[in-house]
Each structure stands twice: as C-alpha cells, then as structure tokens.
Design a protein that fits this description.
By secondary structure, the chain is α+β, with helices and mostly antiparallel strands. It is 34% helix and 25% strand. The protein has a domain at 6-238: ATPase, nucleotide binding domain (Nucleotidyltransferase, domain 5, 2-Layer Sandwich). Helix 12 (369-395) packs across helix 13 (412-422). It binds adenosine-5'-diphosphate.
C-alpha cells in the first residue's frame, strides 16, 4: 500500500494563523490554529507584529506536520489576510515597522489628498479599486514617510515590501524568493490589472521605489520551498483569502459567485477574462493567474452581517449562542413587518455611505426578541441580495446559483430565507474551509496531485436550499428593505 500523500495549507487570517493538512481526496486530516495579538496604538489604527505572524504560522505548520511523515507532504499553499502591509530590511530580515492591517484607517487623509488632486479615476481605471485606506499603497507610503531612516534605506535598495503572503514566502524560503501572486498584487492599489505590471505612474504618486516590490507570479506556480528537517516541501499555491475561497468553492468559470458569511460578507463573482468596471459600487480584482492566464472577479463587501447576531448576543443578551438565533427566528416565521439595518459602521457595497447608522423599523407592541432576531438574520440575506443585484447590473446577466461558506452559513433559517429572497438556489459547501481548500487546490495543481478536470469533479455540496417564496412576496419584502436602508442613509450628516 502506498502511503497517503498530503497538501499543507496555511491560512494566515486577521486574528489567527491556521494550518490544515488535506489528503489527495481534498479531505481535511489535521488542523491547528493559533491566535495572535491585535495592536491598537491609536483610534482607527490596527497593527500586527510580523514576527509574531511568522512565529504563529510556523508553530501551527509544525504542529500539523508532526502528525505525518513530512516526506509525504507534496506541496504547500498559502492563503492570507489581504492588503496588510509589511516593510522589512532585506539584510537583517527585520521589519522596520509593524504590519499595518487592512482595517487601519490612518491613511484616510492621504487618500483624501489624492482624491482632491483628481486622481480617483486614474487609480480606479488602472487598479480596479476605489481610492481607500483599506488597500496597501497608502500604508506603504505612510511607513516610508514616518519611520526614521526609511527613505534613506529605500534609496539604498535595502527595503522590501510585501503583503502577508510575500512576507511568509520570503521567510519560508530563507530570503530566496520575494514574490506575490496576481490576486494579492491586485489589492495593493499599485498594480495595473489590465497591463499586469506595477504601474510606474502610481508608484511615482506614492513615492514607492520599484525595487521594493515583489515579483508577481501565477497563483499556481513555483514559489521555492520550505525546508523542514532537511526535507524540501515545494510552495506551489498562493492567493488572497477571498480569492482562495472563490477557487475552493469551485467557481472556476465566468458567472459563478460565492458569498462568505462571517463578521461581514464577502461576495466575489468570477468574470473570466473580462475585467468589468463596476457602475454599481463594486470593485474589480484579479481572481487568480493559472498557466499564464489571469481571471478577473467583481467583489462586494458588507461590513456587518454575522456581527449583527453577535451584537444581539453580547449587546442585548438575547441568547447565549449565536446558533440559538435560528430557533428564535423561527418562532415568528409568519410575521414580516420588522426590518433591521445593521449599519453600525456605515454601509459598504453597494451604498458606500459612511454616515449611515443602524436602525430597526416597523416595531409594534407585539414585537419582541424573536421578531428582531428574525429581522437581523434577514438583513444578512437582504444585504447579500443588494450585492447580487449590483453584480447583475454590472454584468447584464441574471445569476443562477450562489455558493456559500463562512460561520453564519450554518444557520438554516438564514440559508432558506436567502434562497427565497434571491429566488434561486443556495449551495452550501461540504468543506466550509473554502479558503484553505482553494490554496490546497492551487498548490496541488502545481505539484501535479490533480488536474483541473479532476478538480472540477471534486465538489461536494452538503446541502442545496431551493426558493419556495412566491414572486409577489419576494418583491414586497425587498421593497421594504430598500425603504428601510434609505432611511438610515446620511444619518450622521
Ligand atoms: P470571521 O472569519 O469573520 O471571524 P466566521 O466565518 O468565523 O467569521 O463566522 C463568525 C460569524 O458568524 C460571527 O459573526 C457569528 O455571529 C456568525 N455566526 C456563526 N454561527 C452562526 C449561526 N448559527 N447563526 C447566525 N450567525 C452565526
């Protein structure tokens, strides 16, 4: 009998580093996870220690490897929190500042200055993104301008820039490989997603020297190897977490959509070789590069989805476990007057209204925990429908099915209501670790574990939810939602 072979996925997230070993049937065999410190130096600032990120990632990697013979690990895939920015000295290997996390807002004023100087359109045309502090470019600019000696070190070509994938790869390969993949490069606000190159004009606007930037490779490619106790394990798959999840959800062809229900919602639609510029409040991004061909995606994110259920639990003490929201909502299945708009931190795609604030509408004397909980779960589905509507507008096509994952997709009430309000099927993934699975797939393609055709046959849905609501009711409910949203907008103005 031949020994079982494995692919190792690293899932370096915002709050924890995880490692998962998949076998060649793409089944999860071993998982390890370690949280790390969130650093908040001032209001709106969020940092991570890159050394701790690396240490926790290596710790969980070594833990899962210890369960098997390392010679049977054929490849490594890396998925990462996107946009988070690290700058390090290539001679000492030390970061010159903490990693500035995607959530960090300190560079909003740099973005505003660029907007005032009329550059918003230029950035959007070249990068597909909105000019926002969320993306890496202004974070990199901030580090160069605010860390003592950084400009001189950069001029001496001693500094390297990377998103978290690049930082990990550089360290795993002992400084041999300084590279990123197309999906991560497309989140920096410096990468021209049409010409597939670092954009000289954008680099100049942000004073970023070209020599700091990583080489951009396919998402399924040779990224060197990690040496584990004298055994070389090739790194073959790299992608930003949401794009990795799109791949892990088998959304391989244009038109396929996945939605992840976590704290917020992240929806991506594969648009194939078409980089669609959104007119409906979405961003354009690179999904992945394989065999020298790049696939694009439209992306929309909602700030608060599962977090609204956490708020009911922690803020209002409605229940002990978020999973209790399902049975509570079912108690008022027939009432439909209450709408909950969870715009706690403004509204993301497709509204982009930072001044909106949360509200509950339609309360009557008999409204209670159950109606409010139901309305909160429904708000997750309504926000998802908002994103789907935006994608339909941008692509001029009706979509037909949605692949779902993330913590809150365990809620059957939510999934059924989602299918009902969309009027189309929802496919819940059997392996809800879509992110780790996605980079395992990419690595396995590179090292020859499976072919693309074999991958296509691997998808297992644990459950399909079919719509059962009539059109009249669907339209009436959605109209109510849109009315509720409109009343929360510009609240702070
Ligand atoms: P993240 O990766 O953003 O931390 P997860 O994918 O772990 O998120 O999902 C956690 C979120 O999903 C939390 O906001 C939680 O409230 C919500 N959630 C988890 N399980 C359920 C459930 N059964 N019903 C409703 N919401 C849930």
């Amino acid at each position: 009998m031949t020994a079982e072979k494995y692919i190792l996925s690293m899932d370096q997230g915002t709050t924890s580093s995880r490692a998962i070993l998949f076998n060649e049937r793409a089944e999860i065999c071993f998982v390890a996870q370690k949280e790390f410190e969130q650093i908040f130096p001032s209001p709106g600032w969020v940092e991570h220690d890159p050394i701790e990120i690396l240490a926790t990632q290596l710790q969980v990697v070594n833990e899962v490897i210890s369960h098997v013979n390392p010679e049977n690990i054929t490849g490594i895939g890396i998925a990462n929190q996107r946009e988070t920015t690290v700058v390090w000295n290539k001679e000492t290997g030390k970061p010159i500042y903490n990693a500035i996390v995607w959530q960090d807002k300190r560079t909003t004023s740099i973005c505003n200055d660029l907007k005032q100087n009329g550059y918003e359109k230029l950035f959007k045309e070249k990068t597909g993104l909105v000019l926002d502090a969320y993306f890496s470019a202004t974070k990199l600019n901030w580090i160069l301008n605010n860390v003592e000696g950084a400009v001189e070190l950069a001029a001496d070509e001693k500094l390297l820039f990377g998103t978290i994938d690049t930082w990990l790869i550089w360290n795993l390969t002992q400084g041999e490989v300084h590279a990123t993949d197309y999906s991560n490069a497309s989140r920096t606000l410096l990468y021209n997603i049409h010409e597939l190159c670092w954009d000289a004009h954008l680099l100049e606007l942000l004073n970023v020297p070209q020599n700091m930037l990583p080489e951009v490779r396919d998402s399924s490619a040779d990224y060197g190897h990690y040496m584990y106790n004298g055994i070389r394990i090739p790194i073959g798959g790299v992608a930003g977490d949401q794009q990795a999840a799109l791949f892990g959800q088998h959304c391989f062809s244009a038109g396929m959509v996945k939605n992840t229900y976590g704290t917020g919602c992240f929806m991506l639609m594969n648009t194939g070789d078409n980089a669609i510029v959104s007119k409906a409040g979405l961003i354009t991004t690179i999904a992945w590069g394989i065999n020298g061909t790049v696939s694009y995606a439209l992306e929309g994110s909602v700030f608060i989805s599962g977090a609204a259920i956490q708020w009911l639990r922690d803020g209002l003490s409605f229940f002990e476990n978020v999973s209790d929201s399902e049975s509570l909502a079912l108690k008022s299945i027939d009432s439909e007057e209450v709408y909950f708009v969870p715009a706690f931190t403004g509204l993301g795609a497709p509204y982009w209204d930072m001044d909106a604030r949360g509200a509950i509408f339609g309360l009557t004397r008999d409204s209670g925990k159950s109606q409010i909980t139901k309305a909160a779960l429904e708000s997750i589905a309504f926000q998802t429908k908002d994103l789907i509507s935006a994608m339909e507008l941008d692509t001029n096509k009706k979509f037909s099915a949605l692949a779902v994952d993330g913590g809150a997709c365990a809620n059957n009430f939510l999934m059924q209501f989602q299918a009902d309000i969309l009027g189309s099927s929802i496919q819940r993934a059997a392996v809800i670790e879509s992110t780790a699975l996605g980079v395992a797939y990419l690595a396995g393609l590179q090292v020859g574990v499976w072919t693309f055709t074999e991958l296509k046959n691997k998808k297992i849905n644990s459950q399909v939810f079919k719509p059962s609501m009539d059109d009249e009711k669907r339209e009436r409910l959605y109209k109510g939602w849109l009315k509720a949203v409109s009343r929360t907008m510009n609240w702070k103005e």
